[in-house]
Specification:
- The chain is mainly α.
- The chain folds into two domains: about 10-140, Alpha Horseshoe (Serine Threonine Protein Phosphatase 5, Tetratricopeptide repeat); about 145-215.
- The protein is built from nine helices and no strands.
């Protein structure tokens, strides 16, 4: 029994792309373990870049020609470039062929089954440079049993694809119907809310109108009261002015009276003084005359 692991002495860092493709050109034992170890050492991008110089085959094309899909599954999980195409014809495989073309021509039914599970419609419809899709190569398969099995795989894929497409269409129609129903319900609820809110709003509008009218009446009454108060204030202001005029008149009268009362006694004093002086002078003249 062969070992399930590569010898530790193998230095994959010194490998070039030709060494890699030569190691997988023919289905090696423990191909999955070997590929996983190479990927861990060199990386998947380095593996994807490997191409045969003449045919342009990649590691995916070699894995598609194997008897089991184990390596294809590993490459798919490691994000290999599954839709890579060949550069030139190689035997029955024409130029521009995908790994699905290779699997069909090599009668690898299990590989075709796996690729149809993970592929989309565009991958199946892809045509090589001869204008042939992978399904178109089935008549070129020599074994009738292999042809029947391959045809069954493609027919099953078509049924599954139609079922998935119909399910997606039904789901889309259901989602559209649900959206329409939600929109109708939202519109009905909004209309109901508007109808329910309209009556209280009318009552509130009436209350607001009454309150507004009452407030306006109070304002008018307040204005009339204010005008009355202002007229009263004007009357009181006129009375005050009249009283002030009276006070000023009385004050002037009192001042005049005070001034008159002051002048009269002084005139009496002066008249008395002048009379006294004149009498003394007459007396003195009498005494001096002979």
């Amino acid at each position: 029994m062969k070992s399930t692991a590569q010898p530790a002495s193998v230095d994959y860092s010194n490998w070039d792309h030709a060494d890699l493709l030569a190691a997988f050109e023919h289905e090696p034992p423990d191909a999955v373990l070997l590929m996983e170890e190479i990927i861990s050492k060199r990386g998947m991008s380095w593996v994807n870049a490997a191409r045969h110089v003449e045919t342009g085959w990649t590691i995916v094309h070699y894995a598609a020609s194997y008897s089991t899909p184990a390596l294809l599954q590993t490459l798919y999980q490691k994000h290999a470039i599954m839709n890579a195409t060949t550069l030139a014809a190689s035997g029955e495989v024409g130029g521009g062929s995908s790994c699905l073309h290779v699997s069909v021509l090599h009668q690898r039914v299990q590989n075709v089954h796996f690729l149809l599970k993970v592929a989309d419609q565009s991958f199946l419809a892809y045509q090589n440079r001869a204008g042939l899709a992978a399904r178109d190569l089935i008549p070129h398969v020599p074994s009738s049993d292999s042809r029947a099995q391959l045809q069954h795989e493609f027919d099953e894929w078509a049924v599954r694809h139609e079922r998935r497409a119909r399910s997606r269409r039904e789901e889309a129609a259901r989602m559209r119907q649900d959206m329409i129903e939600r929109a109708k319900n939202a519109a009905a609820e909004s209309g109901k809310d508007i109808q329910v809110k309209s009556e209280p709003e009318t009552e509130m509008d009436g209350q607001r109108t009454d309150a507004t009218e009452q407030k306006e009446g109070e304002e008018e009454q307040s204005d009339s009261d204010n005008s009355g108060i202002e007229s009263k204030n004007e009357m009181s202001d006129g009375e005050d002015e009249e009283e002030q005029h009276q006070d000023v008149a009385e004050e002037g009268k009192s001042v005049r009276m005070r001034q008159t009362g002051t002048i009269r006694p002084m005139s009496i004093i002066l008249m008395s003084w002048s009379w006294a002086v004149s009498e003394r002078m007459r007396c003195s003249l009498r005494m001096t005359l002979p």
